[in-house]
Amino acid sequence: MAVRGSSPTLYFEDYLPGSVFDCGSVTVREPEIIAFAEEYGPRPLRGDPPLNGGLVASHWHTASLVMRLIVDNFMSAETGLGSAGIDELRWPQPVKADDTLRVSVTVVEARRSRGKPDRGIVRALVEVVNQHGATVMGMTAINFVRTRTQQGDQRLDGNSMRPDPGVDEPGDRGL
Asked: The pTM is what?
């Protein structure tokens, strides 16, 4: 596993739409696949290394490795206030032993919370590719981030807010 980093202190205002964050990489090893499956896997291990090109990692094992890289390299411990969840989680290709996964995060949207002006909502596309450039995981993450200032309801591009039917008022729900 990659050495755990320390993400820089980034505030809501630093997550500009279109910004891309390289969250590093991790190599998935066979003993880790087996250990994760034995501890957490509700299904038996898949793949016969000699016949199918390698042992296949659990999707949730892949997700946990990706989350570690995101936490270490994208969301600041000092300003990250949690998550409203994820959308469109997909695993289009299997992850096999000795695959090296590279994680990048692209900010899609950043807007202030209407209910809690000390925070903003950052929606970001997470893309995970293996050493061959094949996408093995993708999702849209929704995070709450502390702001430097408490201003009115403005998107970072200066336009007025409009209701978002997805995560419209998470601050009003106590999140």
From this structure: 0.77
Kindly list the domain boundaries of the chain, sorted by start residue: 12-150
Distance separating alpha carbons of residues 45 and 38, to the nearest angstrom? 9
Backbone angles phi, psi at 102, to 5 degrees: -115, 135
* Predicted pLDDT at 22: 96
Q: In 127-153, which positions are buried (b, 16+ CB within 10 angstroms) versus exposed (e)?
A: bbbbeeeeebbbbbbbbbbbbeeeeee
Rounded Cα–Cα distance for residues 132 and 139 (Å): 20
| Topology classification of domain 12-150 | Thiol Ester Dehydrase; Chain A (3.10.129)
Residue for token pair 């980093």: 5
What strand order describes the sheet that includes 135-146? 20-27, 100-112, 119-129, 135-146, 80-90
pLDDT, tens digit (0-9, with 9 covering 90-100), for 129-172:
999 999 999 999 999 999 997 654 444 544 444 334 444 444 44
Contact of 124 with 69, CB cutoff 8 Å:
no
Q: Which of 89, 38, 43, 82 is nearest to 66 (CA)?
A: 89
Contacts of 133 (CB under 8 A, 6+ apart): none
